[in-house]
Amino acid sequence: MKDDPTRLMILRHAPLAVPGLAGRRDVSADCSDRERLDWAARMLSEATQVWASPALRCRQTAQALSLSPDYHPALWEQDFGAWEEPGAAIPDLGPLPPEALAEARPPGGESFLDMAARVQALLERARGTTAIIAHAGTVRAALALAVGPAALSFSVAPLSLTVLTRTPGGWAVEAVNRVAP
User: Fold this and answer.
1) Is 165 exposed, middle or buried (0-12, 13-18, 19+ CB in 10 A)?
2) Distances in whole angstroms, Cα of residue 28 to Cα of each of 20, 115, 153
3) Cα gap 88→107, rounded to integer Å
């Protein structure tokens, strides 16, 4: 039932093994920081279900956390199209207001609004306490449930935790970009 309290505990995957814009490229994560991974595992331990993006970096993070999630393609990162190509020039979108930034679509890719629509449709089905291992874009799509396109202004560090709750009154943000002490 939609009125049942729901808590989303969304962990961004471990850092990329090779830094850069990954988007839909299936790249590896660096899961060597055992202290941060142990913290993340403790934070997610109360979850009644675990979901993850099927991206390699999310699968590796889940394995490093000793979790066996249900994989959902809807949780994939935003498709940045041509901007994901090695050496691609990415335009400076910083001056755009949040609404225009959310609508911007990379050549051959998807806009934030496109990605948020697919992510949010899945998140609305979550019940109880759901741990999710996914991407920065996925975290921002979840935040957009509460704050709209302004979610694009949030920083989302690797292995950071963002928590949202849904009550009969709607979505609320409990924590954003929480990292191991």
Assistant:
1) middle
2) 12, 22, 26
3) 11
Q: Which amino acid is at 27?
A: V
The confidence score (pLDDT) of residue 119 equals: 97
Chain segment 34-47, per-residue pLDDT in tens: 999 999 999 999 99
Return the percent helix, strand and coil in the chain, to nearest 5.
35, 20, 45
Sign of CA dihedral 120, 142, 9, 79: positive
In the numeric block, the tokens 């998140």 are attached to 123
Question: Given CA atoms 78, 170, 69, 67 in this order, what sign does their dihedral have?
Answer: positive
28 phi, psi to nearest 5 deg: -80, 155
How do beta strands 49-52 and 70-71 pair? parallel
Intra-chain end-to-end CA distance of the chain, in Å: 36
Within 10 angstroms of residue 33's Cβ, the number of other Cβ atoms is 16
Q: Which residue has the tokens 């000793």?
A: 66
Query: At 91, phi and psi to the nearest 5?
Result: -65, 155
Put simply, whether the predicted model's pTM sits higher than 0.90 gets the answer yes
Strand arrangement, sheet containing 161-167: 70-71, 49-52, 128-134, 6-12, 161-167, 170-178
